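Readers outside the structure-tokenisation community will struggle with the description of the input data as it stands. Showing the layout once, in full, would remove most of the difficulty. For illustration, here is how one protein appears when written out as sequence plus structure tokens:
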Amino acid sequence: MIVRPLDVASRMRPEPRDFDALFYVNVGLLALFFSLFGSRFVLAPGLELDFQVPLVAGAGEGAAPTTCYLSVLRTGQIFTDDGLFSLAQLQDWLKSQARLYKRPSLLIRASADVPISSLTDIDNLAHKAGFVRVVVGAEDPLRAKAGGN
């Protein structure tokens, strides 16, 4: 060890034999701090929370899971999990995705300023490829101009 050649061990003060009063003051202040300012979420991060979501009558009637999704921008760019596609390349991708599922459905996420003609072109391609259901999720143009939230 490094303390032996330098004889540091002989120059150190001896260990205290018992706890002094400052130790008990520190323990008491810590206990007081955690009891006054402690949060059960900080002290127990694995705590299970039970949130109840209010049910709205008729909200789930038209709900259906989608098997594929894509995002469309105003510039005509179409993004999927596999990357960027043009409208011509999209038809092959849609056909390959439609073969993977028994009842394929497609979600088209569009920004607020995407022309309806682009959405109908994609909708027609999806139906030709074999998609049973196509859902368009568009952003509200007024909220988009206001900055989102």
